[in-house]
Amino acid sequence: MAFTQYNSSSGSTQPRSSLSLDNDLKRPVPVTKGGRLEQARIMWDFFFNKPTDTRPTGKIPVQGLTRAQLLAAPNNTVYRLGHSTVLMKLHDAFWITDPMFSGRASPVSWAGPQRFHPPPISIDELPPIKGVIISHDHYDHLDHDSIMQLAGKVEYFLTPLGVGDILVGWGVPPAKVRCLDWWQAAEIDGIRLVATPAQHFSGRGLFDKNTTQWASWVIIAADVRVFFSGDSGYFGGFKEIGGKYGPFDMTLLEAGAYNENWPGVHVTPEESIQAHIDLHGRNLVPIHNGTFDLSMHSWREPFDRIVALGRARHIPVITPVMGAPVNIHDTAAVGHWWENPDRFKEAERVQVKGQPAAERL
After folding, report:
1. 186-223 pLDDT, tens per residue?
2. Rounded to a whole number, what is the largest CA-CA distance in the chain?
3. Which whole-number Å values give the CA distances from 236 to 11, 27, 197, 243, in the listed order?
4. 216 has which bridge partners?
């Protein structure tokens, strides 16, 4: 088992692997295409010329969850909580990816992309969490408030290189943090977690671009294999990961926030399907959609496209209502809840900090 581990008394790290962070930024790609003028035009359109359908007009359906329901659930159950946040029950313990429970994906609470729906469960109501799996440091994946609220009930935080330093700087106990380089693995209570390549970028401000690593993750239990993509453009790494660790019972693959102007850093639904094939996946759960307005496409377009593509390729594409349980091995079809969200009634209003989450949005 090789990874960066923090010294709990000093906060300093033990020696890393022979690969340094500088050498490990293997595939940084331009965020948008074109030169500076073209990039400025793209950003202007993103902020000021968005189509009207990038946000839903009706209410996104949410199936409320309780701690008792989670504790009673069978192993190998997964719950999509929104965006790239997925809760998994493996070996009688809970794991969560890129926990994002806040109302905005932003460094400030008064501006930035706003949630379409409340989380199906509050952080306070969650049971103890064995591990948090983080893909990279962008605000829609690494949320300060969520991390700090979770810190007391989480046993381990697993991050790519450099991201663990952010957590420790926020006050997460260093002994809880594990930083992995690409292809490094950690084993925790019978679960093997491998940080695997992705094609993306990092940065939370004007002066820290690509100073931390990004990663996808392989999660292996005795009877199940799951792939979590984080954010990535399409690249040959999917085939390499599939060759090393596939087949996967379930792939949690990004399918949202894509655009022709930033093709290198986010996959299209067509590329998500191809990545699933490259990974030798069985069930595909599309993530990174349905919670925030992060592109120019209709909010429901990712669902429509990837479901149609999956049907054409005979690939089970699982699209649960936020908070609904799904068994990793189950290929049962899920209804098209996004086609008319006005007809859905939210199952439960979730209390967060003493206030219904829906009212905080």
Report:
1. 999 999 999 999 999 999 988 888 889 999 999 999 99
2. 56
3. 36, 11, 10, 11
4. 196
